[in-house]
Amino acid sequence: MKNGLSIQDKLLVAAFALEAEGRQRFSAENLVVMAWTKYPEAFGLAGYADKDGCPIYPNSNRVYAEIMGSKPLRKNGWLRKVGSKMYELTEAGRSKARSVSGIPATEGAEKWALAREQIEFIRRLFDSRASTKFRSGQREEVSFFDACGFWGISAGSNVKDLWSSFADIKTILARADATFSSRDAVRIKHGSGEFAAGDVRALREIHAFLQERFKSEIDHIKARTDER
After folding, report:
1. Reported confidence tier of residue 186, pLDDT bands at 50, 70, 90
2. Domain 7-107 has CATH 3.40.190.10
3. pTM (2 decimals)?
């Protein structure tokens, strides 16, 4: 394990540990207990320690302050809220957790090959209305509704949903780029077709186009910080 981890890094490692136990989605309380278990000095309740000085109770407020506000854990799109006090790591968060946890290659560190869910994510981007219109030369026909479908959000989403979506797109497309660059020729199936390096570049262009075309709508979402 690397030394000098930030509070956000430690929470990502704790969330990653919950995933390893089979909890793809976990409650805020699950994260509180796991964070305290792994890092009692950072997430223990002050004033309650055993004879060795180790905190014997978790400090839930320390964790809640990091996952319910606009601090790096949410602003960087590493953690996504999926229900009332329920969360999951985003693909970007999972990647960051692996990076800071120092997992040896023999114990499951990232490989450049895309996982099935990542291929499915790219396929969804490919099959979106925004992508279809863009590739067929109908850029002016792309609506904000189409853009939301590409990003996997809705017009009523808040800024944290937007951060999570953009972080996932950035991380997964970067991983796809690395997959293609590490081999002489790669074509990855999606449904009945395939996609290649040029297709991934096109998705990045579409993402940039949508952000520019719907800047005012995005700014409106960025101003909406409430949890829905």
Report:
1. low
2. no
3. 0.74
